[in-house]
């Protein structure tokens, strides 16, 4: 079915924290209705760790009026 509403969105985020659990840096890539319609346009998020990072958190997000799951085919 895919994303239907203009307010629907998917996201992939990477957060890096230091030893005090303070956010050092974050990156995010999002998808919205009409992005590719089964053409599977490649989206990527390249990140590196910071030398003072002690934790990396990864988040997949889905906000949708109709869908109830997010299909992630490949994470390299």
Write the layout of secondary structure elements.
Elements: E1 9-17, E2 23-31, E3 55-63
Antiparallel strand pairs: 1-2, 1-3
Q: How is this structure best described in words?
A:
By secondary structure, this protein is mainly beta. The chain has one domain. 0% of the residues lie in helices and 36% in strands. It is built from no helices and three strands. The chain has a three-stranded antiparallel beta sheet with strand order 2-1-3, with no helix packed on it. The two termini are 26 Å apart.
Helicity range: under 10%
Distance between the termini: 26 Å
Our estimate of the beta-strand percent is 35-45%
Compressed to H and E, one letter per element, the order equals: EEE
Low-confidence stretches: none
The biggest sheet amounts to:
3 strands, antiparallel
**Order of strands, widest sheet:** 2-1-3
Net shape: elongated
Using the CA coordinates, give the radius of gyration: 15 Å
Structural class: mainly beta
Number of helices: 0
Mean pLDDT: 81
The overall strand count is 3
Count of individual domains: 1
Pick out its properties.
mainly beta, three-stranded antiparallel sheet, single chain, elongated, 76 residues
Quick summary:
This protein is mostly beta strands and 76 residues long. It is 0% helix and 36% strand.
